Amino acid sequence: MMLDSMGPTTTAENKQWRALLEASPVAEMKALLTGLNGRYISPGPGNDPIRSPESLPTGRNFFALDSSLIPSRAAWALGQEMAAQARRDNPQSAEKSTALVLWASDVVRDEGVMIAFGLDLLGVEPQWNSRGLVTGLRQQERAEGNPRRDVVFTTSGLFRDLYGMQLELLNRAALMALNASRDRIVRDFPALTVPLQNALQPLQAHNQRGDESLQTNQVAAHWVAQAKALLADGVSPEQAGAMASYRVFGDAPGSYGAGINRMAERSGAWESRDELADVYLRRLGHSYGGDNYGVPAQRAFKMQLANVENTYFGRASNLYGLLDNNDAFDYLGGLSLAVETLSGQAPSNYVIDHSDPQAFKTQPLKLALRQELRSRFLNPQWLEGLMVHGYAGARTMGSEFFEYLWGWQITNPTLVGDWAWDEVKAVYIDDKYQLGLDTFLEQGHNVHVKTNMLAIMLVAIQKGFWQADAATRKSLASEFANLVAEHGLPGSGHTDPDHPMLTWLQSELSPAQREALANVVRDARPAPEQALEIHRLSELQLEVSDSEATDEILRIVENQSKSTSSQAAVKNSSEASAEQKQSSASNVMRNRFLLALFLFAVATVAFASVRAVQNARKGSE
């Protein structure tokens, strides 16, 4: 389907691409077996096959671009075009900022287009040598009416791991934008001289200072206001200057994800959206750049996001969208939620689709989401294709699409209105297109997917996101209760035995349904003795059913004690023969082996006991 809609228009090229795509599964399996056998796998470029057909067939040891080439000249040219369009079409107040989401996977595909986009908004451009390597940055001249926009960069954990050089580049770009008004700030705000010097210290020998007005340089204007506020709150001049200059943020070193997707899946673990925003701010509130590599900086992060008016998320690939993965709402949705929580108003969110570099388009997030929802997830042709794949297709419908729609619901409630849930119910539960979807979702293990679908919709109602009418509430509640009574709880974060939704649900059920549901929920709860948590090894009660194993452990201990005494006697005897000394050395090695064996046996039994407790707890869920 993707090839038909996005592939080449000529018949010959289309046939060639189709043949390469069809050869890819076999090539993938062959490469997997080759790798498992420790043999050589041929390298090849890795990218979106629609955007870069040279990546076909897949199954090769793919490689990406050298990070020292990023952003490339081609990416810079496209990023400049996108930035020009953003300045022209998406107005922004002078006191407000822009925030970007940067992903590593997109950099692999587009050579750093979104990095270039952010640099141009700051009024800073890369410099390359003759080999195309990025060697530094240069300030652009900015005239009145074409201000430097203040930009906050939010990055993924993988971006941090793969593109540390670019983190430093972005941090330096923000400081260079501030430096463009250095003389003006020192002259007009002498009390900020020390904070400014400390903020710009990472630039070291960079002397490209300037006298730009704060009307032209929004980075500098915001720094002045924020530094003043921090000083007024008692922050030291050195700290205030640096904190007000932070613009690059991400996860703590070694961690990944904004945390919103995990909270979305565990809807019973939170009550208000403020709790979700707090998770996002804590996880991504780490500053990167200079000596501050992954340093916690939640206060600075909150200060920057409170001023954000526009956010941008780039899409460099045809392989994924906004509703077929949980990363989009984790980062962009989480960013929007955090800004809304801090400022009281959701920002204007934009999606830049540059999967076709020759025809990029910028859309409001609301429009992009609706288009994807209707063209794919509410499209009968797409649903029929999924039904062919049995449980895998059902799981894509429920455990993925429903979960991701729910993620956008809780992060951007105005984007997923009642109309969306009404339409989803009509298609997936009521079989609006008469595809046999209702029957399909109750076949075999598919029924657990359907039960979870119903649970998500009921949670949306229970938490007040979906204002469903009484008939809809009763219909969904009844079907959910009947499926649970017959097949049990589906085992998701929306159906935990202690989930508030299950209590709220009681009023929508008949007495018989309430009783049946209560029985299943009661049986799903772990028994008190199974809920014990083990904190230290001494709390373990070692139970070894095999008496021979116990005897063997005791025998090893006894032999170890005897052999140790024997070693001491041999060692202290001045008349020991060479043969005895050799025997002593042999005994030492043997006893070390026995001691290691003993410790291994104890650890094995301890591990088995821990697993037994864990399995007992899991078995009732």
Structure description:
The protein is α/β, with parallel strands linked by helices and 621 residues long. The protein folds into 4 domains: 2-63, no CATH class; 67-182 and 200-212 and 246-365, no CATH class; 378-525; 540-618. The protein contains 26 helices and 12 strands. It has helices at 2-6, 11-36, 73-89, 104-110, 113-122, 157-162, 164-179, 182-188, 193-200, 218-232, 237-245, 260-265, 273-284, 298-305, 327-343, 365-377, 380-387, 391-411, 418-429, 437-440, 446-462, 470-487, 500-504, 511-524, 547-572, 578-618, and strands spanning 43-45, 61-63, 97-102, 124-128, 134-139, 151-155, 248-250, 286-287, 295-296, 308-315, 348-353, 361-364. The chain has an 8-stranded mixed β-sheet, with helices on both faces. A two-stranded parallel ribbon has the order 1-2. A two-stranded antiparallel ribbon has the order 4-5. The longest helix is centred in the C-terminal third of the chain and has 41 residues, at 578-618. It is globular. The two termini are 39 Å apart.
